[in-house]
Amino acid sequence: MYIKICLFLLPFICVAVRYKPNWNSLNSRPLPAWYDEGKLGIFIHWGVFAVPSVGFNSESEWFWNYWKNLKVPSYIEFMENHYRPDFMYADFAKDFTTEFYDANQWAEILNSSGAAYIVFTSKHAEGYTNWPSSTAFNWNSMAVGPKRDIVGELGEAIRTKTNLHFGLYHCLYEWLNPLYNQDKANNWTTSQFSRTKTTPALYEIVKRYKPHIVWSDGDAEAPASYWNSTTFIAWLYNDSPVKDEVVTNDRWGTDCKCKNGGVWTCGDRYQPGKLQPHKWVNAMTIDRQSWGYRRNADSSQYLSIEELLATFAETVSFGGNMLMNIGPTKEGTIVPIFEERLRQMGQWLNVNGEGIRGTKPWSKQNDTLTSGIWYTKKVDAVYAIVLTWPTDILSLAAPIPSSSTTVSLLGYTEKFQWTRRPSSGIDIQIPPIPFNKMPCKWTWIFKLSNLENI
């Protein structure tokens, strides 16, 4: 991104400011407005790990690492019981068939969620790329398995069929890559892997697919200097084809998380419990345990729509975005429970989006009198997100009404009566509403206009 500064004494001369490859400069870049306004994104973890698609109280996408690197007994036993003794992880790739993968169908399902953007796996730590990467040779989706450009197909469908922003996840490291492990053994004094594998791949996906989000991961072992992260991000912000729109995260090295980069992730399923000074994101999963699809999951291991909305309400009230993950099957299907949750989120946002999209945190994030109440605000209104439907009276301590205050329920036409509480706050009278007049099934948003303390 360029910021043009017009000098006061020379109003007709504008200077284009370029970001330098250091964190002080890169961290000064303003966040593109579309990201904060959108609030909800969909994460998609997909790769060869979708073939074994099992996780034993753990993530399925880490299958290879658990089996061969960490040597977890449950994974070793699974392979001994179901596969021949000389079976290698690479043998799974031929069964990554994707025969039912229809990018246009995915685009419709993803768009139905009401999200503003998606983040799709270009490469996980297994090293397999979902595009015909020049650095992955025979370990990519064109060479083995699908024989197609998975990233390209989805990117095209998202851009032509929806208004979603298209983003890509890319893992810096690869668990069992010998070049990486040699650099690691050398205590990062050599950079053969990062120079020949990671850095070229990052430039390649940005130039080829023009993602509006570059979500980096695999930052737990090497510092940002090993990955040459600041040089890449400076190019991304200054000269890349997405320099004005692109959003990055904070996973660019061991010295970055919750400190350097774009939006802060700080850790998976991050929920800080208080308002943050920097834009942040709660990257979380519908499957309570795994990011990739698990064949051995049962229904209790998936978050309900009520749980998802409770997490979403808290996240947005504290100024965050929620990145909600699904994992497709090896055949390329989004299983019904994931599709249902996506469509339920979209149904809810169709009614309640006014109280979510484009909002800012209020001075009070939650109510001290009644539990399960979260707040957002716009210039002219405060929105109370109510997790449990109130009976008779909804008592709130935080909002202070004025004589011109009005209270309404998003998706419902009639205004609500209210009285000022003797000490502080407001009592909202809840009339009986027929079930067929209720605007939504779960989590309701009350709009409070013209408050004294907006």
From TrEMBL:
<comment type="function">
    <text>Alpha-L-fucosidase is responsible for hydrolyzing the alpha-1,6-linked fucose joined to the reducing-end N-acetylglucosamine of the carbohydrate moieties of glycoproteins.</text>
</comment>
<protein>
    <recommendedName>
        <fullName>alpha-L-fucosidase</fullName>
        <ecNumber>3.2.1.51</ecNumber>
    </recommendedName>
</protein>
<dbReference type="GO" id="GO:0016139">
    <property type="term" value="P:glycoside catabolic process"/>
</dbReference>
<feature type="domain" description="Alpha-L-fucosidase C-terminal">
    <location>
        <begin position="365"/>
        <end position="448"/>
    </location>
</feature>
<keyword id="KW-0326">Glycosidase</keyword>
<dbReference type="GO" id="GO:0005764">
    <property type="term" value="C:lysosome"/>
</dbReference>
<keyword id="KW-0325">Glycoprotein</keyword>
<keyword id="KW-0378">Hydrolase</keyword>
<comment type="subunit">
    <text>Homotetramer.</text>
</comment>
<dbReference type="GO" id="GO:0004560">
    <property type="term" value="F:alpha-L-fucosidase activity"/>
</dbReference>
<keyword id="KW-0732">Signal</keyword>
<dbReference type="InterPro" id="IPR057739">
    <property type="entry name" value="Glyco_hydro_29_N"/>
</dbReference>
<feature type="domain" description="Glycoside hydrolase family 29 N-terminal">
    <location>
        <begin position="18"/>
        <end position="354"/>
    </location>
</feature>
<dbReference type="GO" id="GO:0006004">
    <property type="term" value="P:fucose metabolic process"/>
</dbReference>
<dbReference type="InterPro" id="IPR031919">
    <property type="entry name" value="Fucosidase_C"/>
</dbReference>
<comment type="similarity">
    <text>Belongs to the glycosyl hydrolase 29 family.</text>
</comment>
<dbReference type="Pfam" id="PF16757">
    <property type="entry name" value="Fucosidase_C"/>
</dbReference>
<dbReference type="InterPro" id="IPR013780">
    <property type="entry name" value="Glyco_hydro_b"/>
</dbReference>
<dbReference type="InterPro" id="IPR017853">
    <property type="entry name" value="GH"/>
</dbReference>
<dbReference type="InterPro" id="IPR016286">
    <property type="entry name" value="FUC_metazoa-typ"/>
</dbReference>
<dbReference type="Pfam" id="PF01120">
    <property type="entry name" value="Alpha_L_fucos"/>
</dbReference>
<feature type="signal peptide">
    <location>
        <begin position="1"/>
        <end position="16"/>
    </location>
</feature>
<dbReference type="InterPro" id="IPR000933">
    <property type="entry name" value="Glyco_hydro_29"/>
</dbReference>
